[in-house]
Structures are given as structure tokens and as C-alpha cells.
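Subject: Transcriptional regulator structure
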Amino acid sequence: MIAKTFGRNCEVVVHDLTTPQNSVIFAVNNHVTGRKVGQSFDHLIREVLLSGQFNEDFVAGYETSDHNKESIKSSTSLIRDGSGKVKGALCINYRLNSLSHVQEFVEDMMTFGEETKPTAEVQRDNVVEIADEIIDSIIKGYDVEHLKRKEKIQIVKFMDEKGIFLIKGAIDKVAEKLNTSRVTIYSYLDEIKKGE
């Protein structure tokens, strides 16, 4: 419905965050960013949860770009279940270059959301809670007691690529979930960086 309302330059993507490694479960007009079913999320941590705009479970009108560096106006809203747990995300990505011929409309569409300021404590608690749920979802499919070191490093690498460790307390949470120490997580991260 959203894509048909705004046309072929409007991409709509739905993520199932209970399966973070392949969270994209629906994409329409995916020529805008190239998102495909089965891919993982990209911008959720850095450009949504940690943005100064994140409030009331959504960010509207933040700027991203496609592989050609063309400007895209994006909005992301989290989806919670009846008990309040984050289960998914709805993302809308609109390619702006097609609007350049209509001056007034372009100026309106290219105005990015203003930074809102919920209380710092509420914002921090909400982001930490969401990150904890994503960490739990990433690890839930593994038998932690029998994971080999190499498998743990792969899990940590995935989390690092997705920006999980940018959130305060994430290293301790991951160490606890993987039954290891925070020093070990740091050593995994060092090894990942040396390997790259």
C-alpha cells in the first residue's frame, strides 16, 4: 500500500528482528537500495537507534544513500509485540533524484527530521533494551555451551559489523550470553580487525 501510494521510487522493507542475520522478510521496489529478502539489517543501530532523532520507536526523514551515492530519504519504525518486545522494523526509503523537477516538493521532501530530545535516561534505556533483544535474537539459535572459539568469533564479527558494540554495555551483555569474559570479547574484536 505504501509503495503504491508513493510510486516506484518508494521502497518498503520489513525486518523480522528475531532473526537478525537474515532479517529482511519483505521488500517492494527494492531497486531503490537493492535490499533483498534474506539479507540482514544495515542502518538500524548507527542511523536509527543511536541517532539524535530516535524517539517513540521511530526516526522519520533521515538521509541515506544508495550504491550510486544518490540521496535517499529514509524512515524506520520499530514493531513490538503485545508484551512490548521489539520483533521487527518497517523501513521506507524514497529516492529523491526523481523529484528535482518540482522545486517546492523537492524542498519539502529533502528537509530531514529535526533532532528530538527525549530525556537522556529514557532514550538510553530504550536503546539498551532494544540492543539486548537483538543480542538475544542473534545468540538464541546457538547452543552456547558447545560453541567452538571460531563460531564465537563469527557471532562477534556479525555483531561488530552491525554496530552492536557501539551501544554502552553491549560487550558485557555479549560476554555474559556467550559464557565468556569481556576481555575475551575484546580479544575476538582485535583478532577480527587484524584479520581484515
